[in-house]
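Morning!

As promised:
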Amino acid sequence: MTDLVAQLLARRLLLVTGKGGTGKTSVAAALGRLAADAGVRTLVVELGHAAVLPDLLGAEPSRATRDSPREPLPAGPNLFTLRLIPEDALLEYLELQLRVRLLARGIVGNAGFQRFLAAAPGWRELITLGKLWHMVTREDAHGRPLWPLIVIDAPATGHGLSLLSTPSVIIDTVRLGPLRRNTDLVQALLTDASRTLVLTVSLLEELPVNETLELRARVRELGLGLGPVIANGVEPPLALADPERVLAVVASLDGADAPSPLADPRTVCASARHRLARARMHAGFLARLQRETESEPLVLPWLERGVDGPDGVATLAGCLRRALDQAPGETRA
Amino acid sequence: MRPERWLDCRILVTVGTGGVGKTTVAAALGLAAARAGKSVLVMTIDPARRLADALGTGPLGHEPRAVPEDRLREAGVASGGALSALMLDTKRTFDELVERFAPDPAARERIFGNPIYRNLTDALGGSREYSAMEKLRQMHVEGRYDLIVLDTPPASHALDFLDAPRRLAGFLESQFLKVLLHPAAVVGRASLRLFRTGSELVLKGLERVTGLEFLTSISEFLLAFEEMLGGFSERAHEVSRLLRDPVCGFVLVTGPDLQQARSAESFWQRLQAEGIQLAGLVLNRVHAWPGAGEAPADDAGEAERAAEWLARAIGSRAPELDALGSARALVAATRAQAALARREAGVREGLERALPLVPAAVRAVPLFSEDVHELEALARMAALIFDEPAHA
């Protein structure tokens, strides 16, 4: 295991975030697969109501877990996935705190309370973090962490930042009481870079790169540790020694007797030019990320077949593994 | 609705998941309308600085900023057409509402001074969406523009912004909130038993969990807000009506992969359920087949023959080049492009089947090989949306 892989997997909580559409979910899944393959018992958590990870990781809902959706689904050796729904976590939390299941259910089931919850600020973020804290601190029968590593498919930039900033807002607003005590514990976990890292996924395009840089600045302000930028969907280089020269020659060819549209000189040139232009653009933004984050982004290639199931995730995990093996230096805190 | 008719709307709302290029499409639609001689406002939620740079407006803020005339001329906008842009500021929109509806300066200051208001306006369920709708209503009522294009916040699976006014109204009108505000008033003799099993129990339970102080701050915040609730609810209902009015058209923006197409379909179903008609769909960042006709079906043998032919042709012209290596790389790139174009065409057909729009209302915009953040590129995108021949 290289240093960077070991450092990353020694954390307890890895939060994967970034601009919408950059492939956060695929990267979180791939990270989970990589960790599990490296022998770390890993839980990949998705937030909210879209259940994407079970399909992506190839988790089979067993009868036991289907009846109890709060339980993690196994997705192969060392790998589990869980969908964390704030409403469920709230009920669970109230049960734990009040020690009276009926009372907790009465509260959560109260229609007025539900309308209140639908728009009430901050509680989803807080209960989500509380549940994560709870899972990080849970131990098995031998006193070892039940979940040595939790990877979170965190919400995109805006909501992601709301999630991460909620504890500091509570700490600023509430001085006493159980809410404050619990929030302090959550905040201590989040701001401990030896336990928690935020990984930002970006595409190598203008808007995602801008957003990534702003996101990282805000995460740093909030006092959280930052992992490397993951540059996703990067155009692989076209294997041509002298592309301009080759394309000039191809452009001069007569395609009248080409045996296939795949050999038609104009089509070939257009495809190649498109690839080259995108590769140039990607190289430019990669350089900008290197410059402005003063670190080496992990580069994941664009996968022709996409990432829509366990095979795609395994391929992406392999790419991530290679990127980590090649990356120099420290995981930044 | 054919794209040229989209511009007859007074309001165009671009909707879709994150990262499909909604902001860019919204800007391109705005530019197209300006080229048609209209005065247009584009409202974005994205802090898209380069978009602002491309438009030449300077940093976008809460008030509209005009694109300079010379920039507009360069982008093919004749005199008469005008384009402005603004970036939504949730906090400012809420502040304005408070200023507007606060019964007196003391009440206003109570709200502005409340820590929960200060910290959580952005986090309040749907506050971004609500403020986008409120700003839209405000600009529409002012009537300064022929067309307003609203770029909505990204939503993962639901049209959060359609729900936002209703959710906020449900929250403001909830019984629980009344208890939180006026415990004594609600506890009449008759309702006592009912009440004990309901909201009071909830409050007692929550107090044990959160501590009294937190509940007190929340109820202070809500108390401060209470007098304005009527104004807020009324606005929410107005916006709701405006969105369902025929002057308002929705343009769904999506990408060509299967996941994105699926969320586009669920968006469309939600819009329908809400009684909102879709004006059209923009399939953005499509890999177009650069050759004539349709992209060929995948065939390894054909690819090999193509590479051999191309290698011979290159070799005869430039013997010093690695002809076979180059030809293989080039054909592989072309083959990959063909595979993508075919797969995405399938997704497009699926969308056209699933969404009963006239086919002409679905427009595909190819993935540009550079970023679309220059006015010139926006103009090209606009042309692709509006001038593309109808899809057969």
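Chain A has 14 helices and eight strands.

Hope this helps with the figure draft.
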